[in-house]
## 1
Amino acid sequence: KKKTFSAEVNGKTITIASKETLLSAALRQNIDFPNSCRVGGCATCKCRLTSGKVRELTDSSYVLSEHELENDFILACQSVPVGDVTVEYEERATKTVSGTVVGQSSLTHDITQLTIKTNTPLSYRPGQYAELELAGLPNIKRSYSFATANSDPCSLTFFIRQVGNGRFSSRAVEEDLMGQSLSVTGPHGDFWLRAGEKDILVVAGGSGLAPIMAMLEQALTNRENRSVTLLFGARQQRDLYKLAEIKSLKDLWPTRFSFVPILSECSRDSDWQGGKGFVTDFIGEYIDGIGQAYLCGPPVMVDKAKETLISLGLNPNDIYADRFTTVT
Ligand code: FES
């Protein structure tokens, strides 16, 4: 029985070893295949299977839309060909630029904002992300969403949340990085504000606010005439941030803009007046009139929010999500 197969990837032919995923075969043979988490959680490696069959290692239905599933999209990192295959992926204008940290400030006890001045412009769609690599920490690349609209393509801002003893994130949160060199590779991802007139529900948790701030800032500049409801989940009051910026978005927004902060760990004696519980438990209260949803934050939150929205009747094709998989 034949053990190795061949794959045609955007017109180039590669070989697939026994039990090898499409992604690892492509990378091994120097194809610049888009990828990030490599565990089936981010959809960066999605591609269209135009001929042949694959065996999927995990269920891709959480990260691919119904439309994509119907159109034979697969995750290259989770697909093992069981015969010769042909796949196509969208080549993006991804590039690597070098830059210097010109701004570093704490947003909360575990989230730091980094601003990077780059030597050459890097354009992106607000909502997308990039990989950062510090010159002083080579080969440790971490993905972060652009946190502002792309008004100055040589100035990039990211929110870095400390994950355990994460090598990259601990440095960013605990050490002084001002003046340090780093490289930024991007843009990646397909999370951005879709055109249209539908009212928007945003569900964000933790540092998941970054791409949302970028998208909303862009929408405001474009004078998008759509109502926005932003549900923001955090643990405690000290985990809320960017409140002044959200307030100014709200004040400048041409139509209704509702901001609903929700705390999951709220002590009984606290004077907190906002929502208490999990952010996903509040979706039902705010679903009326919503035509599109944008979800961003920890995978458990995103998956639960998606499930809730679908059960409340929102079309899965109108749900866009960015699951923040954490790597230490
Ligand atoms: Fe395949 Fe993230 S790289 S899903």
## 2
Amino acid sequence: MAGVANDKPATAARIYDYHLGGTHNFPADRAAAQAITEMFPFVPLLARNNRAFLGRAVRYLASQGITQFIDVGSGIPTEGNVHEIAQEIVSEARVVYVDIDPIAVSESLDLLAGNDNATAIRADLRDPQAILDNAQLRKIIDFDQPVGLLMVAVLHFVADDADASRSVTELLRPLVPGSHLVISHGSAEGMQRDLTNLDSAQDVYKRDTATPFVLRDRAQVGSYFEGLDLVEPGVVWLPEWRPAAGDPQDFTDRPTESGGLCAVGVVR
Ligand code: SAM
């Protein structure tokens, strides 16, 4: 990992990796993750349930004929990466992973070595045009065909509401009808837990990483899908989106407590 430019000691990608039981994390990431888990012990379960939603959504998109994916905020490769899931259903599926974290990108590139149908690029979603103009992305993604745009567990790292909305709008702009948008997002709407420590948990990201963490409510998450047709069951809690056999059961009887809202929409 030496030589990787990273001016903050912990990153959202590696904190998430730790929550998922991965090994691509450093002491600062583990300390930040443990501080959060001490306040909110359910967070590793949230990560697991989010990852399960990502898998179901990718399977759904592939079943709808989507063969190319742009995965923004893709994270460090772990179990059930998008190209692996998509290629189980459509062997020629193409995927571009996009992340702000250089380690997430380099680990993805290592995993994808020799795979002509997938790559990883480093970019900040707050500069959506740079993503769309990226030459490597354009080699893999054909904008004349429907695209699956994945923004899973990433928009909550964009603190500015206008930046987050603009990014979604701009990334959707070149996508042809039949393209799909997949989003999951941290939310505490209606949560029954004691949220006294929420500010302190958010302070961990503010203090230790370059990506502060913000929660949004159902109306805000729904607003990203304005002008799209929402796929049933609409904007719901993670375990509620088209549950499948083998899903984690942590929040099945109390979905609000999962801490994540999600939805899939189709470009008209
Ligand atoms: N999408 C994967 C998933 O749901 O399993 C990984 C989600 S992980 C919680 C969030 C990822 O978003 C991290 O890898 C982080 O580096 C990335 N990220 C945060 N802010 C970003 C930004 N402005 N642009 C691109 N990626 C960003």
## 3
Amino acid sequence: DTYLNPNYSFDNFIEGDCNRLARSAGFAVAQRPGLTSFNPLMMYGGVGLGKTHLVQAIGNYIMNHFDNKLVLYVSSEKFTNQFINSIKNNTLQDFTDFYMKVDVLAIDDVQFLSGKEKTQDTFFHIFNHLHQLGKQIIMTSDRPPRELQGLQDRLLSRFKWGLTADLQTPDFETRIAIIQKKIQSEGISIDYDVIEYIAHSVNSNVRELEGVIVSLMAQASLTRREIDVELAKNTLRNIVMNEDKEVTIDTIQEVIADFFQVTIADLKSKSRKKEVVYPRQLAMFLAKEYTDLPLKSIGYHFGGRDHSTVIHSIQSINLLMGETPDVEETLQKLRSYFK
Ligand code: ADP
Ligand code: MG
């Protein structure tokens, strides 16, 4: 994975509200590598939301439009392994020389560098060297820089020199467009009601969406059946049952919003209305239970509240539980959505 995969392009990257900033910043960088103020360009977001696709699309675009630019894509894991080997083999100089002569360095999943001090030291030097020469640096991470624990402050502060853009979970319209693009590229056609059904049912990330379509096609050809909503339901049932799904804070907020008929914006708002406060507190309570996010970042997902608010919410729910059995019942119902 030191190489670009030509299948990732801007053409087959669907743009939506969820990724607009990252995509347009990426495209600007692709057109004028090293010359925009987006240097470094840091794109972050959860798994399967298109980070690798975008970063590779930038690299491919540059390869195809500039004759003389050396583009290097590397995962942080690979970078680390190469670094360790170079120490072992006494070839550290070759290693750094190699990276210092590129025009564009795309380094994927930098959260992986966390806690790896020596690797970070070397990356720091490569980064400085390239940046001083006006070379383009692109990075991705599964979380925002401020939550990158175990990364040196001097690196984090450099990440902020350029632009940080996030990739979010695709909204309904974007999911529809992604499914349409995917089935079109497979050369098949599916009725709109099936597409809509899938877009409604699968709302976690693009990788999962693609997985469902692949399974659906496999299912259709194995059973020689038409792809219809019924088949889509079967396929989804099989997939969901075979997989222990990780519960994310987004899922929790969606379930709570559905359950209490409030909006996710309500949950993140400053509203002190009882109809909103209780669901919000329950959501934080469940976020603590199901995710291993630090309280600080749970608060961040609820409209930028601080960690003491999260603690307070959890305490309130615990108190309420002592007062009435309703709360425990509600929690049980909510938990059943996460099984
Ligand atoms: P990440 O690196 O963030 O985990 P990937 O870039 O590997 O995610 O994306 C997972 C899959 O979803 C890939 O096959 C990718 O092509 C596809 N994908 C993600 N976002 C989009 C998008 N906006 N349009 C089209 N395909 C996408
Ligand atoms: Mg990736």
